User: Which sequence fits this backbone?
C-alpha cells in the first residue's frame, strides 16, 4: 500500500510520493530467461494511450529527462506485470498489489530510480527485489545484462515467467537473499535496491565496480526513507539524497548484519 510522505526540507521541492515494494526468506533458484522484448504497435495495444499519458504527466512532468528512460517507460507493458483484475489501473500514479504482500512501484519511482542509476549501454546491473519483474524489464532496455534477486520464490517464479514470455532475454532472476548480492556475477556497474534498508548492505557495495552506482531507499523501514544514490569513488561511498520515499523493508536474517559506514555528502 502506498503512502504519501512529506519531503524533507532543504533538498528540493517535494515530488509526488514514492512507495514501492519488494520484501526479501531464502532459497536459491536460478531462472534464465528467454528471447528479445516484444515490440507492440499503438494500433495493437489498447493500453498504449495510457502508457503515453503516464510518461508525459507522471514522469516527464516531474523532471525525468533521460530520453532512454522515457522511451523504456513508454514501451514496457506495465499492465502485463500486474494481476489481470488490476490491469485497467496499471498506468495510474500509484503502486499496486501483486500478491504475497508486495506491490509494484509507482511508475514515477521506477523511472526516477532508473534515471538516477545512470545506466550506459552494455553495463551490468543488479536488482535486489524483483517483485513483479517490471523494474527489471525497464532496466533491460538500457543495460547489457540485468540480474535480479527476489527472496520470495513464488514472486521469483512468476516474474521469471512473465519476463520470459515477453522476451526479455538479457534478464536473469534468482530466488535468494538479496542482502548478499550475486557475488559470482560481480562486479556490477550499477545496483538498484527496491526495499528499505537502514544502512548500505556491505556485500552490495563490495560488488560494485569502481565508479559504480547504487540506488536504494535508505532509512528507518518503519517510517520514511530517503531515496539515495551511492557512488563508489576510490573504493569509498559518496552519498547523495534524492527524495523521500516509503518502501517495504528488506527481510531475511542477513539484514541483521552490520552495514557499510557512509561518508555522507547530502
Assistant:
Amino acid at each position: 500500500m502506498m503512502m504519501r510522505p512529506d519531503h524533507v526540507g532543504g533538498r528540493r521541492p517535494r515530488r509526488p510520493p514514492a512507495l514501492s515494494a519488494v520484501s526479501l526468506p531464502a532459497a536459491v533458484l536460478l531462472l534464465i530467461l528467454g528471447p528479445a522484448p516484444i515490440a507492440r504497435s499503438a494500433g495493437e495495444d489498447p493500453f498504449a494511450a495510457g502508457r503515453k499519458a503516464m510518461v508525459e504527466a507522471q514522469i516527464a512532468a516531474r523532471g525525468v529527462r533521460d530520453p532512454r528512460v522515457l522511451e523504456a517507460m513508454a514501451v514496457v507493458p506495465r499492465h502485463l506485470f500486474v494481476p489481470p483484475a488490476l490491469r485497467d489501473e496499471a498506468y495510474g500514479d500509484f503502486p499496486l498489489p501483486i500478491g504475497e504482500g508486495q506491490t509494484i512501484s509507482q511508475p514515477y519511482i521506477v523511472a526516477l530510480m532508473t534515471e538516477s542509476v545512470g545506466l550506459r549501454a552494455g553495463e551490468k546491473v543488479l536488482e535486489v527485489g524483483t517483485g513483479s519483474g517490471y523494474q527489471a524489464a525497464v532496466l533491460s532496455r538500457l543495460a547489457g545484462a540485468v540480474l535480479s534477486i527476489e527472496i520470495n520464490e513464488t514472486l521469483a517464479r512468476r516474474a521469471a515467467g512473465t519476463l520470459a514470455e515477453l522476451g526479455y532475454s538479457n534478464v536473469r532472476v534468482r530466488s535468494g537473499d538479496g542482502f548478499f548480492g550475486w557475488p559470482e556475477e560481480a562486479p556490477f556497474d550499477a545496483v538498484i535496491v527496491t526495499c528499505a534498508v537502514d544502512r548500505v548492505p556491505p556485500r552490495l557495495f563490495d560488488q560494485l565496480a569502481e565508479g559504480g552506482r547504487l540506488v536504494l531507499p535508505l532509512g528507518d523501514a518503519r517510517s520514511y526513507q530517503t531515496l539515495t544514490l551511492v557512488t563508489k569513488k576510490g573504493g569509498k561511498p559518496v552519498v547523495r539524497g534524492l527524495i523521500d520515499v516509503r518502501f517495504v523493508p528488506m527481510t531475511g536474517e542477513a539484514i541483521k548484519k552490520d552495514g557499510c559506514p557512509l561518508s555522507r555528502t547530502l
